[in-house]
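Hi L., both proteins are below.
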Amino acid sequence: MVRVHVVVHGMVQGVGFRFSARVEAQRHGVTGWVRNRSDGAVEAELEGEPAAIDRMLAWFDEGPPGASVSSMTSSDLEPTGEPGFRVLS
C-alpha cells in the first residue's frame, strides 16, 4: 500500500472533479479523500496498491471532461488504512 497527497491546479472546480474522482477511486479500489481548496485547486489523498495509485495520478493529471489541468504535484505519505473514499467540502 502507498498513500500520496495530490494538488491539482487549473480549471478544476465547478466541473465535477471531486465527484468524478470518487467514481474513479471506487473503480480502482483506492481509498482517501478529495476536496476543493480556497485557492481554486483540488486537493486529495489517495491510498491503494501502487498500480492503482499510478492510474489515479494519471487520471488526476487529465481530470474529467470540462476540466483543464495546468499543473499537478504529488508527494508520498505514510499509509493510514483509511476505509472508503470521501468527497469533503
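That was the first. Here is the second:
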Amino acid sequence: MGEQHEKKPSLNIAIITVSNHRTQDNDTSGDYLQQAVELAGHRVSERSICPDNRYALRAIVSQAIASEHLQVVLVNGGTGFHEQNSTPEALIPLFDKEINGFGELFRMLSFEQIQQSTLQSRAIAGLANKTVIFAFPGSTSACQLAWEQIIDTQLDASTKPCNFVSQLKKVKE
C-alpha cells in the first residue's frame, strides 16, 4: 500500500522589491523569490517594485493586508541605514503583532556571511489582518538566507512544533 500524504497548503504570496533603481528587467532578488516561492508550491499572486518611500510602501502593503486572497507579503530592500531606507518605518505601524524573532534570527544567520555588517540589517516581520509580512535586505544573498533558512519552513504547515500557516487567512483554492 502506498503512503498517503497530506497536501501541503499552497499560499498566496505578494513579492515587493523596494528600490529606487531596480526594474522588472534587473530585479534579480524578486526573480529569486518568485522562483523559490513557486518551487515551494505556493503562488505569487502579486509582484511589484516600489520606490523607497515609506508612504508608497505602506499603501501597497496596506492593500495586500486588506486583500481577501493574499496571505503572505515578502518585502525585500529598504532595510538598511541609508537615509532613504524606510521599510521598517513603513511597516511597523501596520503590524497587529511584531515577530521579533525574525529579525534576531536573520541577523544571527547573516553574521556567518557578513560578520558585524549584520548590525545594519533592520530585517523585521509581523502579522496584520491574518497576513504575515517579512521584510529583509534586498541583496539576492539576503533573500536566499531569509527564504531558505527561515521563511520557507515557517510557511509549511508540517513544520513542528509551530509555523505561521494556522495564523493566516483561510482562502478557497
